[in-house]
Amino acid sequence: MSTNSYEPSKVEDRFYKLWEERGYFEIDGNKAIQKDDKKFAIMMPPPNVTGSLHIGHALTFTLQDIITRYKRMDGYKTLWQPGTDHAGIATQNVVEKQIMAEGKTKEELGREEFLKRAWKWKEFSGNTMVSQLRKLGVSPAWKRERFTMDAGLQKSVREAFVHLYNEGLIIRGNYMVNWCTHDGALSDIEVEYEEHQGNFYHMKYPFADGSGEIIVATTRPETYFGDTAVMVHPEDERYKHLIGKKVKLPLINREIPIIADSYVDMEFGTGMVKVTPAHDPNDYEVGKRHDLEFITVFDESGILNDFAGEFKGLERLAARSVIVKRLDEEGFMEKVEEHMHQVGHCYRCKNVVEPYISKQWFIRSEIAKKSIEKTNEGQAKFFPPHWINSYNSWMGELRDWCISRQLWWGHQIPVFYCSTCNHEWASMDEHPHECPKCASKEFAQDPDVLDTWFSSALWPFSTLGWGNGDSEMDRLFETDDLKEFYPNSLLITGFDILFFWVARMMMMGETFMGKLPFEHIYLHALVRDENGDKMSKSKGNVIDPLDTINDYSADILRFTLAVSAAQGRDIRMSGDKLEQTRNFTNKLYNASKYLQMNAETFPDLGGFCLDTELGKYMVSRLNVATKEVRAYLDEYRFNDAATVMYRFLWNEFCDWGIELSKADKGSIIELGAIFKEAMKLLHPFMPFITEYLYQELSGKELEETESIMITNFPTKTRRREEEEAKFEIIMDAIVSIRRAKVLVDMANQKIAKAYVKIDGASDEAKEMMKAYIEKLAKVEEIEFCNAKVADAVSDIGEKCEVFIPTASIDLAPIISRLEKQSEKLEKEISKLAGMLNNERFVANAPEDVLAKNREALADAQSKQEKVQEQLNSLQK
RNA sequence: GCUCGCAUAACUCAGUUGGUAGAGUGUUACCUCGACAAGGUAAAAGUCACUGGUUCGAGUCCAGUUGUGAGCACCA
Fold first, then answer.
1. Do A767 and A712 share a domain, yes or no?
2. Nearest residue to nucleotide B74 when comparing alpha carbons to its C1'?
3. Domain ends where: A672, A688, A719?
């Protein structure tokens, strides 16, 4: 190694390029280690094609990459399917703004020209996301990268649509939908409700016969032009007699009846409700029940129409204050109260959403039925499991899904209307030649496009070739893909798109493939800032993952995210945590430097026999770590798996392995091999530094050899109890001596002599331990003894007792420490004795627990004896 | 209103079928001893939110309370 510290920027791009060029990321990238019938498939949730990488992406793709690299190294034929999403509304809005900046409108440009612009923008901006992703070191099968509007996926969308259309599962109709006056129709979940301080306007409606007036209360006075009734509860004694009478709407003087409907809550407001069937979902139902007229008072852009009389031409929200003022002037406003209520906003543009009657396309909710059943039969498993509750409750209340969008950017609905014979049909053919019924050439395609989530709902199988035709076969997908990779093994995504995306994939996957699309669904939480606040541009607390990669490294960002990713828990990201990981990478670098000071290169573990005691001990610890990392990764416990690596490499390998090797240089070759093996274990988390150190210790350059990423993930998990027991004693003795030395103010000094009393270790074992203890405890000479040593400071460890002879030292602090220790032991003894004296405990507790407790009690008691003895001797 | 989380050391958080409470950071003391001061050694620090229950035994299971967060629904 030539430099003084590891420089990630020098290796990350270089390694990534080599990995990708060599095709390691592709499904046969690990061909040499693939095992029969082991297949793993995971889909990348396609990020918005014109977006840029944010910290949430960094988290989700890091976790996906960890699992993918793990499976790939573990011999699975692995597909991680990458791609991007066309993101209808978001992308269209961006392009519209560009055009507006040029002083034009999209209508002036025309649909065709607009789409050209959108594609251009997609080409320009579409690579940003994927190139940023590469910086993160992720390893999806890039050669298969898809786009939700590429040719094959357009075909699959048409295939799906036509199928559902012909089955009657897609229908078109005039219904009340969520309408954004900017973005058009939205599905139910695209509306975000927010608390809003509004007003409750109490309006006077005079009776038609001039015999007085009634008071109705509303939050949206501008809709009253569409009122076609006033309703009261049929049992309401106050108003019963009014049912059937007529009132006149203020200013416009249209007469409407007072009707009775039990929907009315008598306690709320005045108990009199204006009914506006065309502008309120409840009133819509009331209107149908009572056969009322549906009067729409503003157009698709929210501009009031003729029904609004003098207010025609005003925008609905702007009109409110004008209307209220006028009503007040004319004496129609009884009072205005403040009123807190929920107002729906468009999730894209934050515009206030209106209930609006419109002719739209819907997928009927029946489509979800089987996928709900199968999920509850356990055919797909959620991690963490409680998400199934949210899934069920949402799926259970599912209403028809509005899938048409008044946009140009997206999959245009493949339905055609013949103007000659009025025939309507859905066509697989992008450009049909004639009406299939009357052969007329006079027909037009529905102008709307499909909800973006319609195409992403097909993602788990459309990317595998379903419905693609065969144009891109063997390039983007292969013939057997569906057979090999459907259902996908796993989905990793954020809980926030459980309904938007996961649920939709479940219904579509089940419908078209007959099987749920995933075996496992891992939903991760949110990344927050160090104060636990949500990151947002307006708050200015956004952490840009690319900045983090530049300032630290991709490895550091990845590991920090992984070690923080406890299931179901939000992640607080902070500079402190990144620094902790940076220190960890520095530790690894230095450990490797130490190894290289002692040998040029190191073999791979497994190619040779471990001879040294230390080597055997460390390999046992590695095996324990291997077992744990595997178990944790198999359960998607990323934080636990990462913590195990941290613990093993720092607290075991460096703190003890390397230190002990200073007393046994012969073990260093073995430790190097073990370290290399540990790099494999760590590779999924930190792909770059592990590759670097692995090659360094092998004395190779990646350019001339195979990558660590297609070596076998460690499999050995056998523990060597015997060696572990020996080293536990060694470490205990070392810590005990160090503790004793602190007491006599000799902490960091070398001392001449120390005695160690170990019960039950053979002379041979003791001989082996000697050098290690001398070196690490800094003692000139260790002598093993069988009895207490007089005139000595002692320390009682877990497995041994040590004595440092002393002539003249201050004993007071030693005595106080021992007294404290004695108190602690006393507490422990009374607790354990209490348990063991309890007949019911002894009768009911399992044998191994009893044994463990008895042993613990005996231990504590003998320790206590020794402490007491020590105290006695010192206090003389 | 319904559903689902969370509450453990000063701070951030682990704690997987119930079996003597863990990590990192921070704190204190000491250490430049040839991997690493982005480091080392040692130490101190917890009525596991509260109340009750089940059990021989509860941070862990059950019921309730308080605080806190999220999702869904309703609101003329």
1. no
2. A342
3. A719
Are both A256 and A303 inside the same structural domain?
yes
A48 assigned to some structural domain? no
> Does residue A688 sit in the same domain as residue A555?
yes
Q: Is the pLDDT of residue A424 over 50?
A: yes
Same domain flag for A661 and A745:
no
Q: Which of A847, A755, A768, A843 is nearest to A806 (CA)?
A: A755
From the CA of A491 to the C1' of B22: give the distance in Å: 31
Please check whether residue A287 lies inside any domain of the structure. Answer: yes
Last residue of a domain, one of A335, A355, A375: A355
Q: Inform me whether the pLDDT recorded for A237 exceeds 90.
A: no
Alpha helices in A606-648 (DSSP H): 613-634, 638-646
Cβ contact A269:A217 at 8 Å:
yes
* Tally of CB atoms within 10 A around A46: 24
* pLDDT score, position A2: 38
The answer to whether A741 touches A779, Cβ cutoff 8 Å, is no
Comparison of pLDDT for A269 and A593, the residue scoring more? A593
Reply yes or no on whether the pLDDT at A729 is more than 60: yes
Segment A597-622 shows an average pLDDT of 91
Whether residue A704 is found in the same domain as residue A749 = no
Domain that holds residue A308: 191-355
Min mean pLDDT across A345-349, A570-574, A635-639, A731-735 is at A345-349
Q: Which residues pair with A394 in a beta bridge?
A: none
Closest protein CA to C1' of nucleotide B57, residue = A841
CA–C1' A193–B66 (A) = 28
Identify the residue whose tokens are 């979940």: A189
Minimum CA–C1' distance nucleotide for A387: B4
Number of structural domains chain A divides into: 3
Place of tokens 């819907």: A362
- A874 vs A427: CA distance, rounded Å: 97
CA A145 → CA A16, A98, A152, A463, distances in Å? Answer: 17, 27, 12, 9
Q: What is the DSSP letter of A99?
A: H
Query: Measured between alpha carbons, how far is residue A749 from residues A732, A737, A752, A791 in Å?
Result: 19, 12, 10, 20
Domain assignment present for A381? no
Sequence-distant (6+) residues with CB within 8 A of A428 are: A155, A158, A159, A162, A414
To the nearest 10°, the Cα dihedral for A436, A438, A439, A444?
-70
Do A744 and A606 share a structural domain? Answer: no
Res A50: pLDDT: 81
Q: Determine the nucleotide nearest to A217 by Cα–C1' distance.
A: B76
Residues linked to residue A192 through DSSP beta bridges, in sequence order: A345
3-class SS shares of chain A: helix, strand, coil, % to 5? 50, 20, 35
Q: Do residues A610 and A564 share a domain?
A: yes
**Nucleotide nearest to A591 in CA–C1' terms:** B35
- Inside any domain, residue A695: yes
The separation, in Å, between residue A705 CA and nucleotide B48 C1' comes to: 52
Please tell me the predicted confidence (pLDDT) of residue A152: 92
Q: Which nucleotides in chain B lie closer than 7 A to a protein CB?
A: 3-6, 12-16, 19-20, 23-25, 30-36, 38-44, 55-57, 71-76
Q: State the angle between helix axes of A668-682 and A638-646 in degrees (0 to 180), rounded to the nearest 10.
A: 160
In whole angstroms, what is the distance from residue A84 CA to residue A149 CA? Answer: 9
Are A699 and A826 found together in one domain? no
pLDDT in tens, A120-159: 999 888 788 889 999 999 999 999 999 999 999 999 999 9
Using the structure, give the distance in angstroms from the CA atom of A655 to the C1' atom of B41, rounded to a whole number. Answer: 11
| Residue A417 bridge partners (DSSP) | A424, A444
Asked if the peptide bond before residue A140 counts as cis, ω within 30 degrees of 0, the response is no
**Interface predicted TM-score of the whole assembly (ipTM), two decimals:** 0.95
Q: What CATH number did the domain enclosing A235 receive? A: 3.90.740.10
CATH number at residue A596: 1.10.730.10
